Structure formats: C-alpha cells, structure tokens
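Handout, section B. The chain below has 189 residues.
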Amino acid sequence: MANDEARWVARAGAGDAAAFRHLVDAHSAALFRVCARITGDRALAEDAVQEAFFNAYRHLREFDGRSAFSTWLHRIAVNAALGEMRKRNRTEAALPEDDDAADALASALEGPPGPERVARSAESGRDIATQLRRMSGIERTAFVLRHHEGQSIEEISETLSLSTSASKQAIFRAVRKLRGALEPDGVEA
C-alpha cells in the first residue's frame, strides 16, 4: 500500500492532476475528521481541508518521504485548522453536540441501554463537549491527535511545533479537564 501511494505521490509531484485527485479522494475524509475535531465547526473544517490540500499541492515537490505521506498531509491539515481558528478569531470554537467522545463513552458503559444509561450518557456527552470547548486550541488539538488519531508524542510535537514536554503537558491538561467533567459533581482528580 505504501509503495502504491508513493507512486501516486510521485505522479502528482510531476504534475499529474488525476494522481493528485486520487490522493485527495484517499485522504479527504480522514483530514476532515481531524479538522472537525480540532475546530469544532463544519465550515472551518471544510476550509481547513481545502487549504491543506492547496498547500500540499503547492509544496508536493518538497515532500521528502522521511515520514509517511499521510503524516505529512495530517500535519498540514492540523496547521490549516489552527490557522482557520486564528484567522476567524475563534480560539474557542464550539464543538458539535454529537461528538465522538459521547459515543465512545456511551459504548463504554456497562449494562443494557436502559433509560438511566441513556440519560447518564447524554449528560456526560454534554459535559465532555463543554470541557472540549473550554480547552485551548493547542490542548484540544494535542488531545485529538493523541486519542482520536493515535499519534505518538513525537508526531504531535512535530505537528504543533512544540517540545515533547509541552505536548505531554497539553495532553495532560486536556485529559485532566475531561476527567473533571466525568467525575461526580465535576470534581477534578
């Protein structure tokens, strides 16, 4: 698969528009998911993805293959999402009510999905969404990259242009805020 993608990247870098379109089709859904989680706004996410692909196309010849193409593209998309938030003066973008975190929480709870479980899950989902909105853009982005995208601390550090310890701190603060939302009576651990 990586070899196949390398051929598409090489062709696109040589000016083959169909090859670049193939790369766009292959990666657009994943980039939209990460941008939507970072910005919390569909329109901002769409703008960020479009900007990311535009920048990737402009700089495709500079891609050196030291990392996977998808990693390189994700870094561009994350930077575009953060740029869109800054550009529109939206450091604390609203997150959608049906965030994936609420879905994950609901499926993690034990027992049959009775009315009490549904109510508890909905309340927890609202608490999580509120806490995500309160996070800084860096905290939310670091959390999304780590816990939704599965990136390593080193990849997050590179993407956000932070030191490893600063990336760890951003993730730690984000997790602490979310944990606080899930503790009884909102008490932080």
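Note. The chain has a mean pLDDT of 79. Compare this with the example in section A.
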